Amino acid sequence: MIQNMTSGNPTSLIVRFTIPLLIGNVFQQLYSISDIIIVGRLLGINALAAAGSTGPLIFLLMAITIGFTSGLTVITAQRFGSGDNRGVRRSAATSIIISTLFTLTFSLIMMFFLRPILHMMNVPEEIFEDAYSFISVMAQGLVMIVFYNLLSGIIRALGDSKTPLYFLIFASLLNIALNYFLIQGLGFGVEGSALGTVISLSISVICCFFYIVKKFPILRFHKDDWRMDWKFTRQHLAIAFPMSVQFSIIALSSIVIQSVCNSFGPVTIAAFTSAMRIEQLASQPMVSFGIAMATYTAQNYGAGLIGRIRRGVFNCSMISLGLSLAMAVIIFTLGEELVDIFIKDRSDDVTAQARTYLNISVLFYFFLGQIFIYRNALQGLGRPVIPLISSIVELGMRSFAAIVLAVHFGYIGVCWASPIAWIGGAAVVCFGYFYTIHNIGTRYLYCHHHSELPWH
Fold it and tell me: What separation in angstroms does the CA of 346 have from each of 32, 126, 206, 255?
């Protein structure tokens, strides 16, 4: 169902839009979490470490594709907000063409460099082949990852956050069933988990495609919608590439941390993997509000409603603060029980190291939540450079902390890397947002007097 977010109560609209996103993001996390739980319980700690050691690399694949497709659909949302139906169709068609070329190129690059990358990440020899099998299947299924995120992004750009959720819930449940069948039934091992994920995402892509064809008249393409306009294409790429780079920089900083953890051996890898999956799940409410803010901001920017953007961002920031406190309480209370879910036979060392990471990082969720809100608001405004700078700051601070602090304090030093990076990243995007929205407000006054819209 198409939803216009340029009228009505901002907070109510954002919350209603976010709830399906949150449920969907939780189920999307079940893809990776169920992979890890099933692998850990069926195949043991070494298999869990093998899948976990590639976690940041999979995050890199996901981050680049999500950043790229999200950047493309910002233009779609802006055109929808301005009432330009032909622009919506042209934007969607252009995004599909660009994504196809992007996927083919990136898949070939990934497959060629996978083994050298795993060696650079210090993946232990005893789990190397399992780790390679797992990540290579995911790399080969990249096309499905890209097109699921693109088609879902197009649907969300039109204000519909519920439909992708329904497809994702079905696919998540299918993924769990396939993982058990492929690993336990057919004896595929670690790579069976990755194969189940790819098959499930493929189902989601098919569902999204047929739903768009049937339910969205605004996206019934005309022949000339597929004609490439290089100026229009550059508008998409001007947002998509910086967002992709921004997301990849964040993922690269995670690879640095994982590389340091890998040097401590399988037990620490398993502990860190479990803690990271819990943290990813705990952060989903904040992530979801961030995604909602991108669509909300883009539509209202397209309509020239700058004051409305300010109100929505502030209210969302306060909600994110409350959520970060709630997640902290849950992690402090149930952290040990959550860690034990990931392993077949309880390991005191694994549990203790995972709790150490969670007890430190949970204190800084407020800064992480603000990053999601202000970063996505800037992206919805079509201003990807400041989020990119923020990501570079995060990369530098996280890498420095992980490497330097690990030398002096060991694993505990690694645990402080993300909180330090969140503080730096939040400072950059918060300052950047307030500076940008002030300038846009001034420019809008000028455009209003000249009968223009600020995105022209």
Answer: 21, 21, 40, 27
Task: Please list the helix, strand and coil fractions of the chain in percent, rounded to the nearest 5, in that order.
Answer: 85, 0, 15
Q: What is the Cβ-side half-sphere exposure of residue 314, based on CA atoms within 13 angstroms?
A: 8
Full-prediction pTM beyond 0.85?
A: no
d(CA 57, CA 188): 21
Return d(Cα 270, Cα 99) in angstroms, integer.
Answer: 34
258-279 per-position pLDDT tens digit: 777 777 777 787 787 778 778 8
Under 8 Å between Cβ of 436 and 455: no
The answer to whether the beta carbons of residues 444 and 304 sit under 8 Å apart is yes
Q: Where are the beta strands (DSSP E) in 63-112?
A: none
Parse the chain into domains and list their residue ranges. Answer: 10-449
Element (H, E) at 66: helix 55-81
The DSSP secondary structure of 201-256, one letter per residue, reads HHHHHHHHHHHHHHH-GGG---GGGGS--HHHHHHHHHHHHHHHHHHHHHHHHHHH
d(CA 173, CA 186) in angstroms, rounded, equals 19
